[in-house]
Amino acid sequence: MKKQHFISIIILLSFSINSFSQLATNDDFNKERLRINKTGMLVLTSWAGANIATGAIGWSITKGKTMYFHQMNVFWNIVNLGIAVP
What we know:
mainly alpha; about 95% helix
């Protein structure tokens, strides 16, 4: 009987020690995830700004299908900017 209690306690402790070590790992993982996410949003903001500027110039100096392409590019990158800024 004592042997079964001892084995149960060892198993219980091994699971609790493992879960405590995972807490530290999850915190490190979360910090790295947030850093990557911020970098990605900075890249998306820069990309959207450059495309809005290029599209606005193209929209103002072209005609026909090309003008509508640049117009669509400006509007789509306003959406990208709206995603990236918040």
